[in-house]
Amino acid sequence: MDTIHDEGWIKLHRKILDNPIMRNSEAFHLLGYFLLKANHKTNRFLFNQREIIVQRGQLITGLKRISKDTGLTSRQIRTRLALLENLRILTRKTTNKFSIITICNYSHYQDPKSNERQADRQSNDNRTTTNNNDKNDKKIGRSKESDPKVKEFQNYWGETFRKETGQPYTFSFGKDGKLVKDLLQVHSLETLQEMTKLFFRDEQCKRRGLTIGIFRTEVNRLIGLKTGDPLEEARRELGVTR
Predict the structure, then answer these.
(1) What is the pLDDT of residues 94-137, one digit of tens each?
(2) CA–CA distance, 29 with 153 (Å, rounded to integer)
(3) Which of 32, 33, 74, 206 has its CB surrounded by the most CB atoms within 10 Å?
């Protein structure tokens, strides 16, 4: 079964160009299909004598229907669905009869007035940023310096870099410090140190570049290699990093 939808159009934000799915045509194909099929308003359906309410930005469907409409195999659909879920582009609730797909932030991006509001916010933000750049830079610098874990990881990174390459690592403390701080909000210091060792020995990482920026995009793949995470296996198959 599938939801009923009217003829019309959808909006596609240019931010999608920065998303990893742009490097995978099948994932992008699947997302476009879901955007086109999702309800633009709340609807009610009867299924097995039970009323089902499907909200704006949702659709009811199944693997057979998706495969028929898109030409993708069931395995391709499952793998790409897992990727889209992991990237927080959509969520999925599955029963033994059907799945309810929910497009994350659907109303925000499909609201005709959202672009105007966003433009106003960006204009105000730009003015605020211009007036406060010096203050913010000083505050950020103090914040990074006051976090002992950030400094400890940077020391560990520098020592490992020198050991593996024979050269000192040139830190961009503003940028690298923020990246490290973001990583420490997700992973423990011990995990990041362990993944650093794998990073400097991994051939894909060597080809991409031995920087903290590249480390941030590769760390989940490296964890997946170590743990055998099925989502990381899917990313490796699709050539997607995050």
Answers:
(1) 888 888 999 988 877 776 565 555 545 555 555 554 455 545 44
(2) 40
(3) 33
Contacts of 148 (CB under 8 A, 6+ apart): none
The rounded distance, in Å, linking the Cα atoms of 182 and 69 is: 40
Q: Could you write out the DSSP letters of every residue in 139-179?
A: HHHHHHHT-HHHHHHHHHHHHHHHHHHSS-----HHHHHHH
CA 19, CA 11: separation in Å to the nearest integer? 16
CATH, range 14-110 = 1.10.10.10
pTM of the complete model: 0.46
Length of the chain: 242
Beta strand extents in the chain (DSSP E only) = 43-47, 50-54, 58-61, 90-94, 99-103
Helix 148-165 to helix 189-199 angle (10° resolution) is: 20
* DSSP conformation class of 211: S
Query: d(Cα 37, Cα 145) in Å, to the nearest integer?
Result: 49
CA distance 222 to 202: 9
Domain with CATH 1.10.10.10 in the chain: 14-110
